[in-house]
Amino acid sequence: MAGSYTKKEFSVGPEEQTLLKDSNGTRIVPAKGTEPVRLSPGWEGTGRPDDELNFKGVTMDQADLELNPPKDRLNIVFCIMVLHGIGVLMPWNMFITAKNYFVNYKLSEEYTGIQSNYATNFLAYLGFAAQVPNLLFNWLNVFMQFGGNLTTRIVWGIVIQVLIFVCTVILAMIDSSGWPGVFFWITMISVIILNTANGIYQNSVFGMVAKLPTKYTGAVILGSNISGTFTAIINFIAQYMAPNPRTAAIYYFITALFVLLACFDTYFALPINRFYRYREFLHQKGINKRQLENSTRDKHNTPPYWKIFKQCFPQCFNTFFVFFVTLSLFPSVQSDVERSNPNFIVPSDYYSTIMCFLTFNVTALIGSSIASLVQWPSKKYLIIPVVLRILYIPLFLLCNYKPNGISRVLPVYINNDWVYFLIAVTMGISSGYFSSLSMMYCPRMVDSQYMATAGMFGAASLITGIFTGILFSMVMPILVANISFELS
């Protein structure tokens, strides 16, 4: 054995006695100035810092994931994110598409026996009741993180929405003809609570998906665009199969319950998926690495919100502006564009349904699908086509747009239904495509540990665009009623 040794009487534990004594029973110790020979109790027990320990805090499963990176087999995680995209816009689409149930049935003069302004102003009230809390809590959730971590916020957001839809189904079953005012305000309060929970849920979903590759953010946007088409189809099927509006509404709102419960179940199924666990592990690993690097500078765990916002602001603006232009025109302006040619292939009775709702939802869906395959232009130049979309506003006003109760002064310069259809198609595709791109780019503007926060900023910008677009759409009837000019 290397080194010089002396003998000393043994007076330590039995394990070391057995291993460190000679045949005469005396302890072997190194000579002065040399290291004693001892057995380490184990690598984890040496007291070394975490970053010096091999595989410290890494389970066998995580080690296996890192050695054998899994793929998203059958695109299961992608489909789950599409489902959550459907879920985040389900409340808004459900109540907007159910306009006939509220306006022409529950609040109608034929049902209640009295004339009131509840039905007349229903959509205006609904828009404010839905979007104001959604807007408020989307922004507050970025900074205050109501309900703790992402899982808590997503779970409680879905649970509250399920309870509100249960109450909505019960209200559909009850005869409310004797108290239309009470029914109206119960509905408005339900919408406020529903969209408060949905704002937190929606924001948290974008925070969750920001940890995954960019195409999964596109999957959520894709689902959001599918949501409108899905809701319209369910509403049509419910009306066709049900014998009366009451039964149709029950079938219709119960469908929303099944969708939200599917979102609830699939969220808890995500940790079972190896690909999702792998991406979560990589994300957490990146966070731990940067926290270690910045431990001497960052004394608190609070994210630098201003720094994050400045970095992702270009994409937040792109998201905001895409939805601002889109919601300025859809559905308020588009649904009031009338057929110009009486011999056009689409009958007058179905013109708004096909040329507005179906056309926009299908084309927006196509645009989102393209964004999952092609990402162009780059993050730097995306703002150019996004800003150019402002031209759709005058284009739609120059079509045969005739809002109810308004005497149009502005001449109709685009009176060809096929030209209007082309404008509507390109507007829908560009809305779905550019909104998906901006939301996919947004988390990639910041460091990995801030991706979830950047995703939340993007979601809040999305809701802000929707809200301001809805407000601006109220200006459109005023414009066509007061502006008159002739094109030379």
From TrEMBL:
Region described as Disordered: 1-46
Location(s), subcellular: Membrane
Coiled coil feature spans: none
Family annotation (InterPro entries): Eqnu_transpt, MFS_trans_sf
Major site of localization recorded for this protein: membrane
Keywords: Membrane, Transmembrane, Transmembrane helix, Transport
Transmembrane segments: 76-102, 122-142, 154-174, 180-197, 218-238, 250-270, 312-330, 350-374, 381-398, 418-442, 454-480
GO cellular component: plasma membrane
UniProt family annotation: Belongs to the SLC29A/ENT transporter (TC 2.A.57) family.
Name used for this protein in its record: Equilibrative nucleoside transporter 1
Native source organism of the sequence: Melipona bicolor
Lineage: Eukaryota, Metazoa, Ecdysozoa, Arthropoda, Hexapoda
